Amino acid sequence: MESNQFGGAAKYVLDQELAKIVNISIALEMPLLLKGEPGTGKTMLAHAIADTLRMPLIVLNVKSSMKLVEALYQYDTLTRLNDSRFGDSGRDVSDIDAYIKMGKIGQAFTSDSRVVLLIDEIDKAESEFQDDMLDVLDQMQFDIIETDEVVNANQRPVFIITSNAKKDLSDPFLGRCNFHHIAFPDPKMMRNIINVHFPELNRKLAENAVNTFYELRNMDGIEKKPATRELINWIRALLVDPDFKHGDMLHKEIPYLGVLFKKSGDYQRATSVGLKKRFFKG
């Protein structure tokens, strides 16, 4: 496989369609917008791309109150004011550049090597932030107002943008991205994921753990459904318990539900089911 092609990573299982849209987005130098419920691997995909293509990863965690300029650069006026008052820092207070610090997008633009820029949970931001950000990504430059300087990107980053679909994105934003919806893994795909993370896992334990996970996940009235990471952590918990480690047959309620469920109501609901459920392995 060519060095600029992505086909998955040691700990990341993906389907062929997702691999294709990743590589098309890299080839066309277009942002890739990933949607899907939390826990479907959107953020981890960016890590896997960076690891496979041997590129640095820069992560911009979007906040609801964030202004675009914060993602571009910050002008540290407070430090400059203190330096002008006390004069013991060794910095030249007339040199404004000394007080300019690059934000995450600025870091990606000024990096000496091509990077993967993950813009995580873009749906938290206002539509103005979204559209203005894509203007910057299209132009590959931005202005530093305080110094009247134009920062041009050394290289175009690989842009991965994630959304939990909690808020609609603007049509102009959607029109300038490639798009892929990452569905929650079906049981077959989940077994492949578990095999990657636990290649020597007892087969019967793996099968029963996955089946039980989906039974619990699909219960009615669950507010925060357990995701892949919860299943992986749950299996880790089972493996450190000597009662489960060797695959002995047990008759008991489902253990360690607190690893799977993080909301009190969900936990209580799962516990009421778990008391009736028999968890087998061996």
Structure description:
The strands form three sheets. This protein has a five-stranded parallel beta sheet with strand order 2-5-8-1-9, with helices on both faces. The radius of gyration is 24 Å and the shape is elongated. The protein is of the alpha/beta class. It contains 13 helices and nine strands. It folds into two domains: 16-181, P-loop containing nucleotide triphosphate hydrolases (Rossmann fold, 3-Layer(aba) Sandwich); 187-274.
**SS strand fraction:** 5-15%
Strands, total number: 9
- Backbone shape: elongated
CATH architecture of the largest domain: 3-Layer(aba) Sandwich
Roughly how much helix do the residues carry, as a percent range?
A: 40-55%
Strands of the biggest beta sheet: in what spatial order?
2-5-8-1-9
Largest sheet: 5 strands, parallel
Terminal Cα span: 40 Å
Give the CATH superfamily of the largest domain: P-loop containing nucleotide triphosphate hydrolases
| Structure classification | alpha/beta
CATH class of the largest domain: Alpha Beta
Mean pLDDT: 87
How many distinct helices? 13
Q: In sequence order, what are the helices and strands, one letter per element?
A: HEHEHEHEHEHEEEHEHHHHHH
The low-confidence runs, each spanning 5 or more residues with pLDDT under 50, are none
The total domain count is 2
